[in-house]
Amino acid sequence: MKNTVLTFQQAKEKGEKLTMLTAYDYSTARLLDEAGVNSILVGDSLGNVMLGYDDTIPVTMEDMIHHGAAVARGAENALVVIDMPFMSYQTSVYDAVVNAGRLMKEGHAGAVKLEGGQEVCPQIQAIVAAGIPVCAHLGLTPQSIHAFGGYRVQGKTEAAAKKLIEDAKAVEEAGAFAVVLECVPKKLADLITKNLQIPTIGIGAGAGCDGQVLVYQDMLGMFSDFTPKFVKRYAEIGEAMKKAFREYIEEVGSGAFPAAEHEYKIEDDVIEKLY
Ligand code: KIV
User: How far apart are CA 127 and CA 137, in angstroms?
Assistant: First the structure.
C-alpha cells in the first residue's frame, strides 16, 4: 500500500509505529520498499556515507536531486523524503520554496526534510503553502555541527529542553507533517511526542517516539568511520562484502573464476576459420 503523509497521521492516531530508513540509490530503495518500510529518507548523510565528506555541509542540491531521483525510481510504496541540503533554505523563504520545488520536480520526492525550529518556520509555512509536505528535524541537526562544537546529545539542560519543546510545537504549527528528533534524551523525546499531534521519528531519541529512522549503512555494519551509541547493527554486511571481495580476488588470481558456466560459447567451425 502506498505510504503518504496521511499514513503518518493515521499511524500517530492509531498508535502504530512508523519505520524510516535512508537510501541513496535505486537498488537499495527497491530492497527497502520490498521489505515494507513506510518511508525512505534520502538523507544528506549521503555526504558522509556515500561521498566520504567529514560532515553534511558540502552536499549540494545537485547531489540530492541525483540520488533522490534514483531512490524514487526504486520506491513503489514507501514515502520518499529528500533532505534539503545546507544553505538551500536557510538563506531565504524564496530559496526554500524554489529548492523544495526542485526536489519534488527533479528529485521526485514525496516530501522534503529540513533542519531547525522557530527560525525556519517561515520557510516551512511557505513550502507547505506551495503544496509540498515538510518533515522537520530537531535536536542534533548535523548541518549546525560547527555551531554545536561536535556531535553531542541535545536538550539536556532545562533551557535547552524548553527550547526543544517550543521548537517542536512551532514546526507543528507551521505545518510540518512529522518531526525527526535526533540525539535527544528519551524522557524529553517522550514528552515532545505526547505534546504533538504530528508523529515524531526518533534517531537516538528512545522507544517512545512514534517512529524510528536509521542510516542503512550503520544498521547493516557497512560504515565504520563512526558508530553512534544509538545504532543497532542488524547485520554485518560490511564483513560479508569484504569476504566476498577477497574470495573474488583469490579466484581471479588462481583462475578459478570465471568457470565454464560463466563463459559464452561460439561454434568450433567459426573459431577454427580465425586461426
Ligand atoms: O541525513 C540523514 O540521514 C538524517 C537522519 C540521520 C535523520 O537526517
Answer: 15
